Amino acid sequence: xxxxxxxxxxxxxxxxxxxxxxxxxxxxxxxxxxxxxxxxxxxxxxxxxxxxxxxxxxxxxxxxxxxxxxxxxxxxxxxxxxxxxxxxxxxxxxxxxxxxxxxxxxxxxxxxxxxxxxxxxxxxxxxxxxxxxxxxxxxxxxxxxxxxxxx
Length: 151
What we know:
The protein is α/β, with parallel strands linked by helices. The protein has helices spanning 2-5, 10-13, 29-32, 37-48, 85-90, 101-107, 138-150, and strands at 20-23, 52-56, 79-80, 111-112, 123-126, 129-132.
């Protein structure tokens, strides 16, 4: 708990090397992540350094507005997953979220994919970008990230 009381801000850690940048989920991330320019820059630098960027569930919203040095969205033409609109219906949260994550990912021309059965684990690896669909993907994405780190 002491470590959590002294958590550094993103601005304080920007520019530092990381093995993995991992965006956890939760509905709050849809408000905090998409327009955070410090986070966007950290993700861009991580991705362009060929290091792992991983996100699960609503944390994938942090990838939406990340633009690479070439001006393209990071998710453009990437196979990606994240919490889908039907799952939002099942969770009874459609009115609480600021946007439809699945639709926004598709607008960015990403190759959005999802599990055939809602609320089941799905993890997608596209190069050094790793995404998990929902909370049920947390364990699997952790395993995949660890395997990728070994390579």
